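User: Can you write out an input/output pair for a complex, sequences first and structure second?

Assistant: Here is one pair. Inputs:
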Amino acid sequence: MSSETQKILTTGGIPLEESLKKVEKRNKIKAFLLVSPLLFFLIIAYISPIVGLLFTSIDDRMVTNMLPKTFKAMKQWDGKDLPSEEVFEAFYQDYKILVEEKKHGKLSTQMNYEKNGFKSILKKLARKMKKFEKGNYKEQIMAVHKRWAAVEYWRALKRRAPTYTYSKYLKGMDMYENEDGKIVQVPEERRIYKILWLRTLEIAFFVTLFCFLMAYPIAHLLATLPTKYSNLLMICVLLPFWTSLLVRTASWMILLQQQGIVNDVFVWTGLVADDNRPEMMYNKTGTYVAMTQILLPFMVLPLYSVMKTISPSLMRAGKSLGGTPLITFWKVYFPLTIPGIGAGCLLVFIIAIGYYITPELVGGASGTLISNQIAYHMKSTLDWSFASAMGLMLLTGVLVVYWVYNKLVGIDNIKFG
Amino acid sequence: MALPKYTEPHYRIWHYFYLFICGCVFFFLIAPLFVIFPLSFNAEEFLVFSEGMKRLDPDAFSLRWYHDMVYGTKNPWGLAAKNSFFIATFATLGSVILGTVAALGLSSRHMPYKGIIMATLISPMIVPLIISGVAIFFFMAKVGLAATHTGIILAHIILGTPFVVITVTATLSGFDHSLTKAATSLGSNPVNTFMKITLPLILPGVISGGLFAFVTSFDEVVIVLFLAGLDNTTIPIQMWTGLREQLSPTILAVATCLIVLSILILVILELLRRRSERIRGISR
């Protein structure tokens, strides 16, 4: 009885259980220490900036910081009638500083986004303000332009008072907050982002589909041929895979141009007239063709690695049990390749949905994707908060795709390369 | 792939049709690369096959674009190549060191929270490049590393490590841990064990991960577009500008060189694969 409850001791007199726990703990710490340099590097230089995009996307301090006194004075204003003299005076003082520092252009651009027609009245005010007399600013400002006497413009100004805004997200979905604070869609003819999102999804979907349809037969061939031949053919898949993306895009630009080889072949076979060569680049066609070829290896490699593990005797067994080749393929072979199909489609779809370089070069106006719009706002309009908002919306989309994939197939079933 | 004699005719037709489809797809994959070769030897300035080239007239071919690539006065390719190799080399070194060490930790069965840490480590591969670009640009601008080589190298380390982590963990999964235990019991310290036992055995995985990291850095353009200043121009940036603005045959000369480089990488990888199979005792 007593021998059963007695604990087993190590030579040092410590119970074995405790000693083992100690070792276990030490091993855990050791493993973690090995991972930690990379982990902390990524958290600092990568993960936290991505989380930081969230703050950039809702950051709206620019206008708030430009007009501090105005917004302070506006706190008491109920927004129904024109604001009081104090607001006008505060606005005059804030704006005077901005004009002196030559920052008023930025404000007028920002305010024009909020309400059309703001730019001109702010410019006019900057000109006329020099001759303003002391006192009674309300009258003087209202005399500059009749819009200054319209309450909507003051309401628009007040809407920019908070330090944060979700308007960029609304803009990314072609919506905006109207003067009554309701979220509404922009007029039909001005909806650009909705088209862009749909086009991105459409192109990513069809590129994935085309890749799948083309990759399946060749992956099957590669997996069933004797190694001697399949190694040779594998080069046809691996060489494009290892070749620079820009080189491959360049070759498509040469092939698809109007005097290019593809068009030459079309003319030669009599498909099209020489003076009526179709435009195959700088539109959707160019994006489809180039992206499909560029992403094809990403579909072939996972499919191949799964097909390689399927024993050929399974097909033979299926046939010997009376299945026609088609039925055997459909009932036996195809279900076994599903993990490969899932991995390939996920990989291609995710890469395609965030593609930037190729659409920018061969896509023209009708073949560009959401990522081109993000880059455009990062580099040209410098509307970084809008770029961040769109980036996060895209990232959310990608994560949802992963989540759905994980639910349907299981992320552990993925086999890369 | 010969068919057995007893195959019925319609399956025979179907089989040849299938081979034909495969041939078309292989052609679609590989043919575009081979347009570049002949056109880069074009004597004229246009990116189409001239009449002379179609007749195989030797005068229609020349090396002038290769000459222009190396000696051209306005050509930035020299600086770009130097930068590209410099950045890619250091990015690869960083990725390989950080990635291998992390993979060693991840492969330990004692590692806590393996799933979430693995997800974090390979996240740069999952997040669309444009978003990574924006985020990394904000970070580098904040710490004052935008438009510096250091900034670009760090960014490429972020992109390259997932490949190293994946290939090295894959190699380590077939690793016999009793070997390191044997070394330890014989009195070797951990560093010595790693250098003498573990590293030589996982070297193929480390090198192929490193090659992935090298190619990723060497070919990367989205993030460099955000980060690079005039002094940090790389080969992809120059190609990008060239393709957008003046599509000159010099680009094709550069592209040909890049294709040759990728053939070289392919050969190295194939040799590595054979070596790794030999080491593991798999012979075909």
